[in-house]
Amino acid sequence: xxxxxxxxxxxxxxxxxxxxxxxxxxxxxxxxxxxxxxxxxxxxxxxxxxxxxxxxxxxxxxxxxxxxxxxxxxxxxxxxxxxxxxxxxxxxxxxxxxxxxxxxxxxxxxxxxxxxxxxxxxxxxxxxxxxxxxxxxxxxxxxxxxxxxxxxxxxxxxxxxxxxxxxxxxxxxxxxxxxxxxxxxxxxxxxxxxxxxxxxxxxxxxxxxxxxxxxxxxxxxxxxxxxxxxxxxxxxxxxxxxxxxxxxxxxxxxxxxxxxxxxxxxxxxxxxxxxxxxxxxxxxxxxxxxxxxxxxxxxxxxxxxxxxxxxxxxxxxxxxxxxxxxxxxxxxxxxxxxxxxxxxxxxxxxxxxxxxxxxxxxxxxxxxxxxxxxxxxxxxxxxxxxxxxxxxxxxxxxxxxxxxxxxxxxxxxxxxxxxxxxxxxxxxxxxxxxxxxxxxxxxxxxxxxxxxxxx
Length: 455
Ligand code: SAH
Ligand code: SF4
Ligand code: F3S
Fold this sequence. Notes:
By secondary structure, the chain is an alpha/beta fold.
């Protein structure tokens, strides 16, 4: 609709970021103007997350804030993403200011829904499936970065871990045909992107229909074949997330060994270090299986950075069981760890068990684990001092003039001093200092062959 302005805010994971990029591409093509001003926009869209109670609550707080700011001149409010998919029609009753509810598979119908709502239709709901032949194009200008692009390869999740809402909000696994992924990565390369992240809730279970499988690429699993095919496009850097321990095949490590542009970082969430809890969580692996994955990752030719997620205070988790998690974290020596306090999600199997670890105890466990990880990370990060890392310079620092920031292939945040002309380039940086969550260094050569860096 000509001339109407749209403000969109994204919560949650990279999948939501990718959906927002597609939604914005379509909205702009339909004649909308995108704005960063939530206080003047004609349409306000919240692309929501439901993974924990706090994430879900955010959308309601933000709707309240935006309406409060507007002093009477109400925008059209649309809720998309996981909360929309899960709550559906109930959202209209809960928050009457909402005009459009569009689920996780309704992205390409969003411009139409918004237009109908602007034309006066009320309470529009679309939590249906994707349309056949839906186009996944994203305009380069709508990507979250001009250098790094998210490429969804699989949506949804079939795992049904007992605590997790994602299989309900995102539906069953659906893999994009590999040819489509390769075409997108090739186009991104032509457009000047230097790094792609292949994304999905569980990328290791990537399984396109057999007739769409790529010929000519070796690999023990469809995912490791896809990795090799994406690497062969010549894209400068390829990262992928999230991996799942039960589906993590050592052939992924072999592929990383073979291709320097497959980055040396694996995010492999473990969730708990106790077999009984893992079984209760329905994760489908034991601690020993997880450690075997870690072993294969640590035996790679290049050093692969390993990161993980952990939930503390799962129903029935005793302090001894939590101690097993601490032990596992010490064994794994993670480069980074995301710790979450268990949050009951209604509709998940775990919601049938009493959420019996008190919030105070969860906080205690959270802090204990955080402190263990802080010490590990200090050691891991200090190990980088004196090394050279290839860094994709993403932007100037917002806090310090003259400071640039970017990521290494091992996914560390690297800060160093340099001219803004380096933004968008890959440079070689010698690491001089390690802080808690980032490394500081000095640029040593800006004209390096990116494939020559081994870290
Ligand atoms: N697909 C990924 C991540 C999904 S959500 C995986 O399987 O690992 C990201 C993280 O949120 C999870 O790894 C888990 O640690 C956390 N999480 C998911 N549900 C949660 C819940 N109900 N309470 C607390 N943390 C949760
Ligand atoms: Fe959730 Fe488990 Fe699927 Fe990850 S693998 S999205 S934790 S159900
Ligand atoms: Fe959140 Fe949905 Fe992603 S619940 S983590 S936005 S899949």
